Request: fold
Amino acid sequence: MNSKKEKFSLKQSLRSFIQLLAYSRKKKKYVFAVGVLYFPAYIAVSLLQIYMPKAVLSELENKQTVSHFVITLAVISIPLFTALFFRDKCKVKIQNDSMLIAQEMNFEYDQKFLYAEYPLLEDPEFSARRDNAKIALFGRGRDSDAPTLRDFLPVLNSMAASFGTALVYAIMISRLSPILTATVLVTSFGTMWFSLRDKNINHEVLETAGNASRKYGYISDQSGNFSLAKDIRLYHMNDWLLNTADRFRKIWLHCKAIMMKQAACVQLAASVFMGIQNLIVYIFLLTGIFKSEITLSDLILYAGASAALSDAFTKWAEKMHNLHQLSIDYGNFCDFINYGKDEEWETLPVKKDKVTIILENVSFRFPGMEKNLLQNLNFTVNYGEKLAIVGINGAGKTTLMKLICGLLTPTEGRILLNGKDISEIPSHERYTWFSCAFQDITFLPVTIAENISMRSLEETDEERVWNCLAMAGMKEKIENIPGNIHAFMEKDINEEAVDFSGGERQKLVLARALYRDASVLILDEPTAALDPLAENDIYLKYAAFSEGKTSFFVSHRLSSTRFCDRILLLDNGTVKEKGTHDELLRLNGLYAQMFTLQSHYYREKEA
Reply:
């Protein structure tokens, strides 16, 4: 918290505020024109509401006729209702414009994830900036009433209108007595100081309350997660989940109690200052009446003006504080949007040329790691060669695949694609060389055909989709589904969507890789949910399909990679062993030990 306060000085906050003004005007050219109408309408409503009781009382004091009384009320009421109409109309327009601008920010926020270079997604600093930007856009949760960036225009206009109103009332009361004006402002300042102090303290408590609330919400969600129901019952997790949830609930309740106590103290302090203010104001005004310096209607006017001045001054200070925080939030938003480098993007046809890939002294470690995950890798994969990558969990197999297809950049060394350093190839061109199926499986809430082609239906070759489903062993399954390839996926979005098992989803991912049909094929354990026989069958089909392609097959089941031309065994970030399946068995090293151990379990099935 302190670091943030140091990071954003008053000068930086002012610069962010000016940038936010410029951003708002850029997105909505005439966004401030409505504020120009809102400003006088707001002040006029406040003044006329204060003046109406005085006018009524003056009519009674002067014993005016009923017709004169009606005319006076009409003279005040018509401008009042007109001002109310314009004020509320402008307020709605300002809120709508602010929401539209916030949607533009949300779009840029989402766009950042889609276009940020892939390594940023695994960068802790990127994640921290993302969290700050998320708070700026969406708030700190249900326990916080602090405005977010979508409230910028309403807060700005409210601040300006409150300042104008306070200035008008200060001038009005000063004509009666500058001392009275100073008294109202001083007591109002006391109320404002306690209020802002409460906000600063609450800001820290909210961090704790927010963390507890998120964790409590997570446990609550998991308790209702049907996929965990079996584990919860079999492992008797009920009490553990409830006790953990209760612990975070108590933390949240404790924080709420602190905030409620602080709010009560602030309310008490505000009441004390307001009582002092009212006492001084009424003593001063009553003294004026006794001395015949003012009338009773003047007392009503100036008492109302004093209260309105106090309210306007306090509101102005609160909105100023909000604008300062919003400026910091916008600075955090910009820090996230501008962090790192975004990828250029252009839709290019998939590459189908011959490819040779060379790794020269390639080492890699993630930001913050002291030790390399991969160390000094040197090997060549020739055109048409099928290379298997094997090793224990955590050996770096997936990281190596991400390096080869250009998602990550080596910490040291280089990767050459047809003799050219892959890091020098623009990302939108680099990706066109690869068809990949990773172990992390994700589908979109669109049709099966679109999930295979990763294009709209208009751009999808349905015959090709069916061919790829057939090669992946899913054609018969899809044919028996109502709507077949036009059926939707992901039930979380569409209740009528089709649900698939883990193994079936992996086969669909394989069909997706087949549909892309690029020069280099990378299969990174996409068949982990399949049984050994089914996995072997799939890989044999891919072996036939991958003729003429440079192919990488990653698997922890060594028997599934025997059809490959070469096998690399990764261990502790280095190539421990390499050769064909038979050569590695004759070597009688780590590969042979792993294969013998696995074949012990699978021998009967394979036989």
